[in-house]
């Protein structure tokens, strides 16, 4: 999961959607989000592995012979999973939104700082598959003001050459669009197969730097506080709030599900049970992902939300326990 997150960040940096100078900060700020995904699976596998060891060493058979009921397994189980669930709940409701808000603020600040974008003075930077070439002679000490800027771009089959004395990055907070403002310069425009050239002088001109729509809109909902989401009536906000609660609920349900899943014969290996647990977790997680989308677009009513997924897995876990009988290891 961490590798996937790192890959996405590197892909966005390579595509010019994120500044290279923020890689370390963004990785650190992504850790709470990654933990919310990893901890439920890690806890689930740990319980399966630990109980599987009891079955393999015949300790569970001895406990069964002593009249140890499966209901007595719930107390030590909850001693393990409840603190982890509380930790994950705190991460999802408090830490992760704060990290997303901090990442958003750092990005907004970086949009105004040339050095964060890896802009090297005295070098030509080829962007957008060669359709945009940027050259900056120097950057002032504030790290934001560019001096003697040269830009060549292809637009609608015509070539534009921008030359300006200075410029700086800025971000439109309302739309999330990134701009490069140039001052005291001129634009020369002409066609590749025509002789019609034009020249325009300007005191200020804003050049929008294109970026993908998802980068402008995705972090907004993630950075909003849980209290704000809880009191909102919008489908997107309510779906996000349920999503933040889901990992903590999943840890408890998966912990109960691990009891019957860990049951194995004395000579049966534990690897098969762990693999089955991972597959069940993938089904659980994917159903939650799909339910989130269904709630957002109104396919699933809000009262059902993502709760039905937890309900199905919770009932399945209890039913599986009942099938094993009242004694641990029966069946």
Describe the fold and architecture.
The chain folds into two domains: 2-110 and 218-323, no CATH class; 115-211, no CATH class. It is 54% helix and 19% strand. The chain is elongated, with a radius of gyration of 28 Å. The chain has a six-stranded antiparallel sheet with strand order 1-2-3-4-5-6, with no helix packed on it. It has 331 residues and is an alpha+beta fold. Strand 3 and strand 4 form a beta hairpin. The protein has helices spanning 2-14, 23-56, 59-65, 74-110, 213-223, 226-231, 235-261, 271-296, 307-323, and strands at 124-127, 132-139, 146-155, 158-171, 178-191, 197-209. The two termini are 36 Å apart. Helix 2 (23-56) packs parallel to helix 7 (235-261), helix 7 packs antiparallel against helix 8 (271-296) and helix 7 packs parallel to helix 9.
Tell me the number of strands.
Answer: 6
Pattern of helices and strands: HHHHEEEEEEHHHHH
Spatial ordering of strands, largest sheet: 1-2-3-4-5-6
Give helix % range.
40-55%
What structural class do the secondary elements suggest?
alpha+beta
Estimate the global geometry from the Cα principal axes.
elongated
Ranges with pLDDT <50 over ≥5 residues? 212-218, 326-331
The proportion of residues in beta strands is: 15-25%
How far the N terminus sits from the C terminus, by CA atoms, comes to 36 Å
Number of helices: 9
Number of domains: 2
Radius of gyration: 28 Å
Q: Averaged pLDDT, please?
A: 80
Please outline the major beta sheet: 6 strands, antiparallel
């Amino acid at each position: 999961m961490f590798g996937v997150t790192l890959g996405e960040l590197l892909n966005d940096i390579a595509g010019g959607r994120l500044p290279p100078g923020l890689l370390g900060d963004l990785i650190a700020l992504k850790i709470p989000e990654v933990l919310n995904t990893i901890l439920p699976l890690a806890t689930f596998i740990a319980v399966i592995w630990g109980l599987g060891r009891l079955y393999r060493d015949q300790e569970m058979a001895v406990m069964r012979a002593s009249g140890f009921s499966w209901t007595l397994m719930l107390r030590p189980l909850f001693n393990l999973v409840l603190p982890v669930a509380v930790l994950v709940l705190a991460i999802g409701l408090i830490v992760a939104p704060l990290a997303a808000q901090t990442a958003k603020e750092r990005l907004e600040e970086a949009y105004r700082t040339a050095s964060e974008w890896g802009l090297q003075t005295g070098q030509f930077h080829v962007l957008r598959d060669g359709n945009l070439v940027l050259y900056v002679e120097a950057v002032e000490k504030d790290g934001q003001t560019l001096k003697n800027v040269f830009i060549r771009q292809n637009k609608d089959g015509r070539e534009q050459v921008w030359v300006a004395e200075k410029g700086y990055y800025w971000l439109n907070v309302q739309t999330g669009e990134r701009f490069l403002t140039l001052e005291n310069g001129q634009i020369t425009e002409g066609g590749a197969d025509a002789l019609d050239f034009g020249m325009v002088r300007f005191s200020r001109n804003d050049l929008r730097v294109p970026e993908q729509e998802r980068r402008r809109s995705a972090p907004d909902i993630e950075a909003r506080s849980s209290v704000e989401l809880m009191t909102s009536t919008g489908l997107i906000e309510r779906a996000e709030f349920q999503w933040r609660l889901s990992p903590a609920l999943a840890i408890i349900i998966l912990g109960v599900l691990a009891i019957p899943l860990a049951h194995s014969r004395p000579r049966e290996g534990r690897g098969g049970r762990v693999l089955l647990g991972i597959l069940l977790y993938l089904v659980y997680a994917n159903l939650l992902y799909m339910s989130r989308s269904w709630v957002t677009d109104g396919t699933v009513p809000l009262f059902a939300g993502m709760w039905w997924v937890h309900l199905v897995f919770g009932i399945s876990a209890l039913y599986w326990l009942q099938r094993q009988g009242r004694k641990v290891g029966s069946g």
